[in-house]
Amino acid sequence: MKKILVTGGAGYIGSHMVRDLCDAGHKVAVIDSMVTGYKAAVDKRAALYMGDIRDSAFLDSVFAAEKPASVVHFAASSLVGESMTAPLDYYDNNLGGSRELLAAMTRHGVRDIVFSSTAATYGEAANEPILETAPNLPTNTYGATKLAAEGMIRDVARAHGLQYVILRYFNVAGAHPSALIGEAHNPETHLIPLVLKTALGVRESISIFGTDYPTPDGTCIRDYIHVCDLISAHSLALEYLERGGTSDIFNLGSQTGYSVRQIIDAARAITGRDINVVEAPRRAGDPAVLIASGEKAKSTLGWKPKYDSLEDIVGSAWKWHSEKPNGF
């Protein structure tokens, strides 16, 4: 088993990655600035380094101490709305941080990286489900910074022999089956936790932004992946690179998608509670449907989602939120 460095390993997705790697017997080192992460979310079997990946001296100290064989890079700012009002901050953190990480990898001879990207790089795609060959036309700064980081990874790979897997996906949801870790953001902006917080009485209502979209029930349809299925794809990507797999980009998607009303109805059924809904006007820039294809990841990486029903996703999230309504 090899040593793996996980950036952003105290965050929602990163903490699930760390636990999965530790369960598989790997030695894991975590870097997190704790701006949005939680120390309590990090598996105690991992070595935790609290610092900023934009600090090259800090990175050198971690790489020298841990000597990782591979890197899984989650650390990033990821709020779409915030990215549009603070674009320079997003370029500084997402692109600047990736630049320093890649520089440290080249200095210390680390070859393999799995990069957590986003399907926001595609913008409003013309065809659904979205394939990896679709044009990259991001409509927000968050997607633009992730796309720029992807380009930097490819350029460094050509120059220094780096091997990479870039994974693009939309909405991650659910929680670890143990309910020891789950989704905890402040502020919370994701639909499923907001719906469940309404069921818990933490919020008075959940808003549906637009009910006149050209979809079966008039509300937006989005792609949702259970966090544990997402993590399995990252683990498979690491194995793929270790076997000498060619650098590549993969979408992670359900190819079906669920509407806002379907999410709310599932939450009502699972929680057994009433959920107050407020219908509101459409938000500018919200496409009717966003769904990604996961076929390439399935055929090349051997990815097989286990928790692909709405009941699995919402049910695990409910277990986490009901047991830990205040998060960490």
Distance between the termini: 30 Å
CA-based gyration radius: 19 Å
Q: Name the shape in a single word.
A: globular
| Record field, number of beta strands | 14
User: What percent of residues adopt helix (DSSP H or I)?
Assistant: 25-40%
Oligomer: single chain
User: Topology as H/E string?
Assistant: EHEEHEHHEHEEHEEEHEEHEEHH
CATH class of the largest domain: Alpha Beta
- Specify the CATH homologous superfamily of the largest domain: NAD(P)-binding Rossmann-like Domain
The structure class reads alpha/beta
Tally of contiguous helical segments = 10
Average pLDDT reading: 96
Largest sheet: 7 strands, parallel
Tally of individual domains = 2
Can you walk through the features of this model?
- A 7-stranded parallel sheet has the order 3-2-1-4-5-6-11, sandwiched between helices.
- α2 (56-66) packs parallel to α4 and α4 (87-107) packs parallel to α5 (141-160).
- α5 (141-160) links the parallel β5 and β6.
- The protein folds into 2 domains: 3-173 and 224-252, Rossmann fold, CATH 3.40.50; 191-222 and 255-323, UDP-galactose 4-epimerase, domain 1.
- It has helices at 12-23, 56-66, 80-85, 87-107, 141-160, 191-200, 227-242, 260-271, 295-301, 310-323, and strands spanning 3-7, 27-32, 47-50, 70-73, 112-116, 163-169, 171-173, 206-209, 221-222, 224-226, 248-252, 258-259, 277-280, 289-290.
- The radius of gyration is 19 Å and the shape is globular.
- With 328 residues, the chain is of the alpha/beta class.
- Helices cover 39% and strands 17% of the residues.
- The relative contact order is 0.14.
